[in-house]
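hey m, so remember when u said the tokens were messed up on ur end? i reran from scratch. heres the input so u can diff it against urs
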Amino acid sequence: MKLVKSAGLVSALLGLACAGGVDGFAIRQRSVANNVHGESIRSNSRSFQWTVVDKSLKNTQLPLVSQTGGHAQTSLHMSLALRGGADGVAKISSLLSSCTSSPLTLFNSCLLTLGATTAIMQIAGRRSGSKEEIKKAKAAKPAGVRSLQRKFLAVFWLLRCADWLQGPYFYEVYASKFINGAPATATWISRLFLTGFASTAFFGPFIGRLADERGRKLGTLLFCALYSMGAASTTSSLLGILLLGRVLSGIGTSLLFSAPESWLVSEAQKKETGDSEGKYLGETFGLAYAGDSIVAIFAGQLAGAAASKRGPTGPFQLSLGFLAAGAALTALLWKENKAVTSTPNDSSSENENETSSKPTIADAWKVVKSNPHIMLVGAVQSLFEAAMYIFVLQWPPAIQKAVQAAFPAGSITPYGTVFSCFMASCLVGSTLFGKLVGKIPTESFATAMLATATASMIGAVVAAKNAALYPLMLSFFLFEACVGMYFPSIGTLRSKYIPDSHRGVILNLFGIPLNLLVVSVFLSIQYLGVTGALTVSSAALGTATCAMFTLMRRQKRNDSEKTTPALAA
């Protein structure tokens, strides 16, 4: 747990370590954009590191105004000159020029800045409270909660690492296959990609019901098995096996995003844990997704190393080890829990219904329809995550176009470093959530976060249309910070509003509109283009903001209605 609480410092160190080497791997998003620049980027990374070590700013003569941002640097030059000397101006100007001399150095600088930001947030948070207050907070946390966090986080991070390992080389592993005697075309790769989404949407509710009925521990073990078979299928060149592998991976994905979370919430509500009211669930989700950002960067490094030795199937084979380790820890550390037969202690529930001992999809849908709070949470989940996946598919071409407009012809877009910047931004967001959890109602926090995400995506649309690199970077980084805040926020809200009796089924029901929207945009991309797709993403985020605002108002009204009788008494 000490390692998790020092996530910001770890991120800063990872930023230093990854600044020169993260671009040896292709990333999940790039699989759709079909850009392969791994080896050339790695060589550029090494030369950048050598330059930074050997080059002295004092003896380096660089132009004051770079190709981009000239007005800003000229203003800075004038301001510093008035304050005291050309030597300081030259050093600052040289530093700025060197940081923006190429796409690689620009994003490396952003990565280090984001890592340093997280570290500063962590240090500032520690200094804001006295040592005695920190010790009291640690002592107040029940031993059962600490034990539950250790058991859950160890498994969660291993499973997430396996998922991140498989993502980066999705395009390459299928592009290397021969289908019907010919190299796999982009059309076939797109079909394989959509097969996974369709599998998640179609089988998700049924597999969620199975996890609720048979047990969430079993569901997590089943995820490990299905994902392992999906990874193993990439070693084959038979179309039928490849399609089957994508179907199994899609089913596994629905389990990954429902079974572990359902297990955690159900365990936290047990009396022996000491957190029956879910007081520490927000903290646990914050730790989980802060660590997930670090795991993503780490997995990218491992994926690049595995691919360099064993080809594009290497990362998939490596993920088998993490899946096996995750399954082993699940079997050893987790106790089985199943869906309870009544709704949880939800102070805001309306029209609560008793449920059957065996949860069904029809019953789950009735529970959703009977409770507006659940409907609103589901709308936020479906819309935000759909917007996120659309962003995942569209940021590579948007960034590439902006880089080409801002730098000389032939400049390489460092997709790996951009991806690491996104993960560092997520870490900033999840760290911020961890600082504010318990101090601000989650509904209010999520409303502000969603409004920020909407504004950032609208900014991205405008920047992408004009191929403006710096506004686009700022918009994307801000959106990714919102992603880092979103996952612990939605996890906390789901634990509060969704009944344990149908948790797995309901989480997967919310995935149906999500996947339908993503697939629709993907199939219409020729007509929408990058800016059109990002516009759809902006609209989805705006609608999600309205849904969360409505939920916030309803919850405040419920709280005030309960407070009034208490005061009268």
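this time it looks ok to me. The first strand starts at residue 178 and ends at 179. if urs says something different then somethings off w ur setup not the seq
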